[in-house]
Amino acid sequence: MGTAIGMAAYGLRPIVEIQFADFIFPAFDQIVSEAAKFRYRSGGEYTCPMVIRTPVGGGIKGGAYHSQSPEALFVHVAGLKVVCPSNPYDAKGLLASAVKDGDPVLFFEPKRVYRAVKMEVPDERYEIPLGEAKVVREGTTITVVAWGAMLYEALTAAEDAAKEGIDCEVIDPRTLWPLDLDTIVRSVEKTGRVVVVHEAPKACGLGGEILQLVSEKAFAHLQAPPARVTGFDTPFPYTLENEYLPLAHRILPTLRDVARY
Any bridge partners for residue 98, and if so which? Predict the structure, then answer.
């Protein structure tokens, strides 16, 4: 990481690969104390254009050292951008934009999606701007925000909820920071309800920040308390990962509660 920071300061655009996000912590100091602060410390004279790619999340029987989702730790650090694509098309377009960006970008790749999601991806270069969310399912009853592998669990839960008359709008932020709050708020103004799903632990997770921002911007539109469905505040388990992960069967009861409030 230190070598890559030097390369970036010298004018290159390195792409660093960390084999698992769980292994990123020895480089945490370099990322948050050096890479994130280059632009600020130099008054804009130097930047640190680099991309840090790393697989995140569970669902592959990886246990406590290969399944963590540390996005909130990096969202908290000023100077970093954080991206988490949910499909191959977005991954290519977002990565192209991340490489061109002038600041360090954490590019979290949900490992559970690597082989589980297939789609056509153009050979030619294209870009998806950082900071633009995508509404992947239109709805009128509840706004559901989810990213990475949990997007598909949220979509499954939304389909199950639809059988009960609960019409969910599902949003994939794609870029976790800077967050496309405008898209989320517009949806909440329409639905009056919001649920965030992520597999990281609940305490100090990104879901809490998103719900607070929504409360600040759209409080008058809320018809039910905002809710989260997340991982638990424990180390990621090996044998009980399907109990730990906020899969569709854990999301659906929350959708029912929020819809009926």
Answer: none
Which residues have a catalytic role annotated?
Answer: 66
Q: DSSP of 79-123, one letter per residue?
A: T-EEE--SSHHHHHHHHHHHHH-SS-EEEEEEGGGTTT------S
pTM of the model: 0.97
> Would the CA dihedral through 173, 177, 182, 187 be positive or negative?
positive
> How large is the greatest C-alpha to C-alpha distance in the chain, in angstroms?
58
Give the helix, strand, coil percentages of the chain, each rounded to 5: 40, 20, 40
Question: In whole angstroms, how large is the CA radius of gyration of the chain?
Answer: 18
Q: How many other C-beta atoms lie within 10 A of the C-beta of residue 165?
A: 8
Q: What is the residue whose two structure tokens read 């991954």? A: 91
- Cβ neighbours for 180, distance < 8 A, ≥ 6 positions apart: 131, 132, 133, 173, 174
Burial class (CB in 10 A: 0-12, 13-18, 19+), 233: exposed
| Residue pLDDT tens, the chain, 261 long | 999 999 999 999 999 999 999 999 999 999 999 999 999 999 999 999 999 999 999 999 999 999 999 999 999 999 999 999 999 999 999 999 999 999 999 999 999 999 899 999 999 999 999 999 999 999 999 999 999 999 999 999 999 999 999 999 999 999 999 999 999 999 999 999 999 999 999 999 999 999 999 999 999 999 999 999 999 999 999 999 999 999 999 999 999 999 999
